[in-house]
Design brief:
The modification 4-aspartylphosphate is found at residue 52. The structure is a single chain. The protein has 192 residues and is α/β, with parallel strands linked by helices. The chain folds into two domains: 2-103, Rossmann fold (3-Layer(aba) Sandwich), CATH 3.40.50.2300; 128-188, Arc Repressor Mutant, subunit A. Helix content is 61%, strand content 14%. The chain is built from seven helices and five strands; from the N terminus they run βαβαβαβαβααα. The protein has helices at residues 10-20, 37-44, 58-71, 84-92, 108-153, 157-171, 175-188; strands at 2-6, 27-31, 48-54, 75-79, 97-100. Strands 2-1-3-4-5 form a five-stranded parallel beta sheet, sandwiched between helices. Helix 6 (157-171) crosses helix 7 (175-188). 28% of the residues are buried.
Length: 192
């Protein structure tokens, strides 16, 4: 497992490293420089990112939230104190675990596990949502293409669908792809 520790303080980073000392087969990278953080994390390609921010200003928090949005990795963020607004912003930014005043070596492993599990659960939900949205968009395109065929060729709905399905089978495409082609052709011919 590749773990990136992001902390401007080497002393605080060592607390996290101490908490990870018992892990076998793990590479730990400590990043202390804020400039170019996303690129540096990209080079490391970690499985998880542990950020210890101590008591950051709003600007620093926003900067790290922007980093977490760009990473698409489990992130556990440690801060000394917080408020409801900051917690909400961290969740919106994709932080998997937001730990207030909880940086202790003996807690790092369990907090890291929580961050990974939350990230994976959220990723599954996001994937399911994206798939459902895709199916809905396909269904809407198919319905629109059926209406175009029904209006332009005077076909009943079952016949319009059957023609699209046959074209999809003949061309080895999905019916939604045929529907998109019908919609595009209709627009090119001056339809709406």
């Amino acid at each position: 497992m590749r773990i990136a520790i992001v902390d401007e303080s080497a002393a605080r980073a060592s607390v996290i490293q101490e908490g990870l000392a018992s892990l076998d087969d793990c590479e730990i990278f400590v990043v202390t420089e804020r400039r170019g953080l996303v690129a540096r994390i990209g080079e490391i390609a970690p499985d998880i990112v542990l950020m210890d921010l101590g008591n950051p200003s709003r600007d620093v928090l926003e900067e790290y939230f922007a980093v977490s949005r760009a990473l698409a990795r489990p992130i556990a963020m440690f801060v000394d104190e917080s408020d409801d607004e900051t917690i909400a912003a961290s969740i919106d930014a994709g932080v998997s675990a937001y730990v207030v005043d909880g940086l202790a070596a003996n807690r790092i492993k369990s907090l890291m596990d929580v961050a990974v599990r939350r990230f994976n659960a959220f990723a599954r939900l996001q994937s399911d949502l994206d798939e459902a949205r895709g199916r809905l968009a396909d269904r809407e395109a198919i319905d629109k293409a059926k209406r175009i065929l029904m209006d332009s060729r005077g076909l009943p709905e079952p016949k319009a669908y059957a023609e699209m399905r046959k074209a999809a089978m003949d061309q080895g495409k999905k019916i939604a792809e045929i529907a998109d082609a019908i919609i595009t052709a209709h627009k090119l011919m001056g339809g709406k």
